[in-house]
Amino acid sequence: MTDRQLRLNLFIYPGGHHEAAWRHPDSAPDRVLDIGFYQDLARTAEAAKLDAVFLADGPSLADNIRYASRFRLEPFTWLSAIAAATERIGLIGTASTTYLEPYNAARLFASLDHLSRGRAGWNIVTTGAPDAAHNFGLDEHPVHAERYDRAREFVDVVTDLWDSWEDDALVADPDSGVFADADHIHRIDHVGRHFRVRGPLNTPRTPQGRPVYVQAGSSEDGRSFAATYAEAIFTAHQTIESAQEFYADIKRRAVGLGRDPGQLLVLPGISPFIGSTEAEATALQEEFNALTQPAYSIDLLRRLLGVDLTGHDLDGPFPRDLIALRGDRVDSSRSRLVVDIVEREAPTIRQLLHRLAGARGHWTVAGTPEQVADRITEWFTQGAADGFNVMPPWLPGGLDTFIEHVLPILRARGLFREDYTGTTLREHYGLARPDSSWTTAGSAGSTTRERHPA
């Protein structure tokens, strides 16, 4: 086994990542609201020694729910139930810096980290759905740059709250009768542009020191944010060249900020269709694509590109001249990814719809287990990825096939663990446990505070 190991997460979407997965006879749409279904998936992933399960979230209902299983389950309830059914696998949930308060977020993730014995990770998002604003008393969604400005301050506040208890503050000494050393519990007294938070947190410092910071977003603001704060980055790329550019840029930015680039993992999404032959895998992918609803796919394009293709010939060339990215779409990495596909491949409208149907712009691969393992190995060894978010096209079969047929090949190549060597998500990822921003100096009650990067 080589020193450098793949990091593999199971990214769970209700029913699977292909937009028509819920219609396929091998899917289980009757179980998408059954916590036992998700506990079974997590136990399967844990038995395979995957690093984490990940649940995406958003605070509004997708306006295309008519054709796809794109509802949202609240992640902390969901992950708490997963934590109770598993022992080692990491637990990554999404929380929005735009539509949540720092104190609440700090408490929720600290509680999850304690109750799971150090397995929590926070997927930090600024929320891209404009409809969310109307669920929180706002007339309009904050613009891209404003959301990222708030996000930076939000993460700083959460970090300070997680550090507000020093590691030795919880004493629990029955002989002395001292439960906690109050001198090692600190107010943060934050006053900023977006937040005023006194602190301290009402929860002790967690097993990981801080839950793992995860970020998703490849825009310029997203890259800057990730290089500053993230310890794992979820990203979408269609080509190894695009992934290599992103990987090198993020690592370079991290170094420029004084960070160890090995403490920042780049994890693209991969959605594999696997067959005993390449033709069989391609036929399986086409079987799913045949179940798509064009009205759903056209609506997805409208939201990504601002172009309504209703009434166009689906088998005609995609009209590139209609695309003019405006507003937040200019800064959207996913919108840019779709434009790149159009410019690089000149697809028909239907071909583009099918490309996006598999995983909403993430990398979709169809091939034999050996071919899928080869592609993963290439990206991992050629400076494009530290691992992947595995996005099964359908569940549970897409996960079972990957675990049964692809993982053994990666293990035989020495690229993925045979067993866990740690108990926390940080240990699975090879990330250091961060020091507190408070360091004790001198006698009790005398402290100096030092800033440490995430």
Would you summarize the structure shown here?
The protein is α/β, with parallel strands linked by helices. The chain has 14 helices and 15 strands. The protein has one domain: Alpha-Beta Barrel (TIM Barrel), CATH 3.20.20.30.
Explain how this protein is built.
- By secondary structure, the protein is of the alpha/beta class.
- The chain has one domain: TIM Barrel (Alpha-Beta Barrel), CATH 3.20.20.
- It is 37% helix and 15% strand.
- It contains 14 helices and 15 strands.
- The protein has helices at 35-47, 75-85, 102-115, 144-162, 220-229, 240-256, 278-289, 294-305, 328-331, 333-345, 349-357, 369-381, 397-412, 425-429; strands spanning 7-12, 52-55, 90-96, 120-125, 170-173, 178-180, 190-191, 196-197, 212-216, 232-235, 265-274, 363-367, 387-390, 438-440, 447-449.
- An eight-stranded parallel barrel has the order 1-2-3-4-9-10-11-13, surrounded by eight helices. A two-stranded antiparallel ribbon has the order 5-6.
- Strand 1 (7-12), helix 1 (35-47) and strand 2 (52-55) form a beta-alpha-beta unit.
- Helix 1 (35-47) crosses helix 2 (75-85) and helix 5 (220-229) packs across helix 6 (240-256).
- The longest helix is centred in the middle third of the chain and has 19 residues, at 144-162.
- The radius of gyration is 22 Å and the shape is globular.
- Mean pLDDT is 91; it is low at 440-448.
